[in-house]
Design a protein that fits this description.
GO molecular function: DNA-binding transcription factor activity, RNA polymerase II-specific; RNA polymerase II transcription regulatory region sequence-specific DNA binding; zinc ion binding
Organism: Chaetomidium leptoderma
Keywords: Metal-binding, Repeat, Zinc, Zinc-finger
Helix content: 25-40%
Pfam families: zf-met
Shape: globular
Number of strands: 12
Strand content: 5-15%
Largest sheet: 2 strands, antiparallel
InterPro entries: Znf_C2H2_sf, Znf_C2H2_type
Distance between the termini: 39 Å
Order of helices and strands: EEHHEEHEEHHEEHHEEHEEHH
Number of domains: 3
């Protein structure tokens, strides 16, 4: 049961579902989580003791296994910065840290290693390293990622802008995106809302009449119906080589922050997010 480090929600389907939840909400992973299983601990020392006892170490300390280290440095006593995990040395601290992240999947500041590059990128972009610097343009709430802030607005959770939801956010983005850079202009916005009553009970479960998914409680079914799951995709990636479609602004912002297709750097998304959800300037990417 992989759990969210902030809200404690458990994901029996695995770490990918948990990581997707964290990306969408701006929540963080458990701070001291085993690199191999779903166990997490109160300290780095306890985490390492567990991994040692269970044999849950990977080969991520072996820089020769992925061949990346030769791109950044070499063994030379004249170099000022030596990798803590291998014999390579570097002329700058940034170069050494980049090597440790990309070749060893290792965060030197936290003395922690990760299972894959996506996990360490998410860690480095979390509030542990960046803090909660993304401010809601309407209230005092702050978030570690632009995704978390946009999700806050699209859910209608901002006390200073209660009229905003994912439909109003789309109208706002659409009006300032005449070239359809991220918003789709070829569809009519469908604002239809769905709800279920006790008549949705099929004898064992509450059943969605659109996709036939079943729920134990009526509240769970109505939460499903109020989500964008049955909504058309309103956005697309601005990268013409990607063009993946998304149903919410938070989803496309998460895609851009992940740097999956290289459309934008994480830092650029952070800088642009204010122009996307507030103000009256046209969108530029």
């Amino acid at each position: 049961m992989y759990e969210c480090g902030d809200c404690g929600k458990a994901f029996p389907a695995g770490w990918k579902a948990r990581d997707q939840h964290c990306n969408m909400t701006g929540h963080d992973l458990p701070e001291f989580e085993c690199d191999t299983c779903d166990a997490y601990f109160g300290s780095e020392k306890a985490r390492r003791q567990h991994m040692s006892a269970k044999g849950h170490f990977s080969n991520q300390y072996d820089s020769s296994s992925n061949g990346g280290s030769s791109n950044y440095g070499y063994y030379d006593d004249d170099q000022d910065w030596e990798c803590a995990l291998c014999d390579f040395c570097f002329g700058t601290e940034d170069g050494c840290n980049q090597h440790m992240v990309e070749d060893h999947l290792y965060c030197n500041d936290c003395d922690r290693s990760f299972m894959n590059y996506n996990n360490i990128k998410q860690h480095l972009n979390s509030k542990v390293h960046r803090g909660s610097t993304i401010k809601c343009p309407f209230c005092a709430a702050t978030y570690a990622t632009a995704t978390g802030m946009v999700h806050h607005l699209e859910r209608g959770c901002c006390p200073r802008a209660p009229e905003l939801d994912r439909h109003e956010i789309y109208r706002l983005v659409h009006s300032r995106d005449p070239n359809a850079t991220i918003s789709k202009h070829s569809l009519q916005l469908d604002t239809t809302t769905y709800s279920a009553t006790e008549r949705a009970w099929n004898g064992r479960y509450y059943e969605c009449y659109l996709c036939h998914r079943q729920f134990n409680q009526l509240s769970g079914l109505n939460q499903h119906l109020s989500s964008p799951i049955h909504q058309e995709a309103l956005y697309h990636c601005p990268n013409f080589r990607c063009r993946v479609e998304f149903k919410t602004l938070a989803a496309i912002i998460n895609h851009l922050e992940s740097e999956t297709c290289g459309a934008m750097r994480f830092e650029a998304v952070q800088q642009q997010i204010g122009n996307i959800v507030s103000g009256n300037r046209l969108l530029r990417f």
